[in-house]
Predict the 3D structure of the following.
Amino acid sequence: MMKKILLLLFIVLSLNASEFKKVDKLILSGPMASVSHPLLHMIKTNALSDVANKVEFILWKNPDELRALALRKTADFIAIPTNVAANLYNKGVDVKLLNVSVWGILGMITRDKTKKTIADFKDCEIAMPFRADMPDIIFEEIAKKNGLDPKKDFKLRYVSSPIDAMQMLIMRRVDHALLAEPAISMALRKTKSFPLKLIAPDLYRSSDLQKEWGEVFKIEGKIPQAGMVMVGKQNEYVVKRFNEEYAKSLKWYKSHPKEAGELVEKYIPVLNAQAVGDSISYVQLDNVSAKDSKKDLDFFLGVLKKNNPKSIGGKLPDDKFYYGK
């Protein structure tokens, strides 16, 4: 009986593939962050050549560019922070979450090697990217759980991006910053703090925000921070093939840091190949389907909603947000 079922399933899948007509072009898009990097490998290896005649990558550099891509349906698949995906969906933009692949990318970096936790930065000036957005809220909630007032107990200096915060560190305009990889690894490389010099390095890795998040909320030390969304109506076979190849490329990315760094620098020259390679071991990467991520996302987005409802579009997204539910 089982053999008959498997044979029938194979025939159905074969028919779907054989009857499928290639699309002319697929546009993949994402920021310079780790969540986008498997997309570059997919393009380099022609991973989707069986479903599209041409596949291109568009780098989005800020939230306005991201919104334009989604609203105008310029891109078919977009790498995106999960709260931004929820925000767009709640505002009526036609997106569905396919997966969550980044579960830990935020950390503190400092000139003071004695500082190990967020509480250790009390009364310090900290460069903080994205006011009232995901990194800021995560920092605030950890601080509050430690009995601190994030508005009074820290001197937060808001900047527009992790790269800006990194530059401030390198130019010694600040001594501490909250950064996302690979910006942390880039700062360490640029100041020759990684690998460690014979003399004291200029910068040190400090708090892992995901670990502290798990400790203060008494859950696993991971945060569903970024993944892929499908924009508009897509052929189900194309989505199936995209999901398969993204998973394969993410696996390759994790296991080939040197080659991955070189590939990323080729497509995104502002990123240093060695720093990208360094960063891979510090990022929690795990390809989890949207429907299997829902429990973790409901908790995370619920915390963001309580802190700043606008960060997710005012409410938790319904089940239609999750592809496959």
Notes: The first strand starts at residue 23 and ends at 30. The chain has two domains: 24-103+225-321, 106-217.
